Amino acid sequence: MLRTPPMRLLRLLHPLLLLPLFLPLFLPLAVAAAPDAALEKLETGYEAQGWNGVGQLEIGRRGFCTASLISPTLVLTAAHCLFDPRTGKRVDASALRFLAGLRNGRADATRDIRRAAIHPDYVYSRHASVADVNYDLALLELQSPIQLPSIQPFTTGAAPTDGASVGVVSYAQGRAQTLSYQKVCHVLGRADSVVEMSCDIDFGSSGAPVFEMKDGRPVIVSVISAKSKLRGGKVSLGVAVAGALPRLKSELALNEGSRFLRPPQGGTTRLIGAAPAGVRAGGAKFVRP
């Protein structure tokens, strides 16, 4: 069980690092039996085949996150992607757009968002607490279904176990125009719904699906939320989806886009949000939200 560090220690933390709350749980980095794979760009239709249900979530003119199709009408991403980091206010669903399989500036399918729901226990903050990372999930309903043979929704499954091999398909700064696939990275440990991994992610990767291969098929077991450092190396934090998805579907059925507005609250976790205002997908630079 994780122990909460004293508040005196929290005040000394560098704002770009996550709470040391995770360190006692995740110290045994030698848990991985095989080395992590390097990122591969999925630049051609052949290379992207089977992965083009992953897409870029455009957020007005302020940037993007990564998202994934889990049914012809539903897209899964991180909750903090739906908030404006400057104001802390919820972004209206009309400002969101899903670009499935975006490669080299062209998407296999583009859909506006009809409505969106975040986990009812999620509270947005630029410096969220570890507890909030547990709930950093959002479900979006498309204006019209994506029903193309080349774009198949992904199934979701139970959270991965410690030491499991997983993979991530994502966009990020410096690779905003084309999907990148890390075939193998590893689960370093878990705490509640938070999964810490060795996966290579960066700003813009928020909402990216974490896959575990089951019976030869990719299954989404987590969604990328934040990044940190451990013993000088980069680590990623994801949120397990299995327990939260039924609640998100229930919230989506009720949500008309206004009931989840919440003011920012204090904390120390750094999320990996979208680009600043005026930077489109593939723009020059990303900054931390």
TrEMBL record:
**Keywords recorded for this protein, A-Z:** Hydrolase, Protease, Signal
State the Gene Ontology terms under molecular function. serine-type endopeptidase activity
Enumerate the SUPFAM superfamilies for this protein: Trypsin-like serine proteases (SSF50494)
Ranges where the Peptidase S1 domain occurs: 30-253
Which PROSITE patterns does its entry note? TRYPSIN_DOM, TRYPSIN_HIS
**Pfam families hit by this protein:** Trypsin_2
Instruction: From the record, give the transmembrane residue ranges.
Output: none
> What are its GO biological-process terms?
proteolysis
Recorded hits in PANTHER family, A to Z, give: SERINE PROTEASE
What is the recorded name of this protein? Serine protease
Q: What species is this protein from?
A: Allgaiera indica
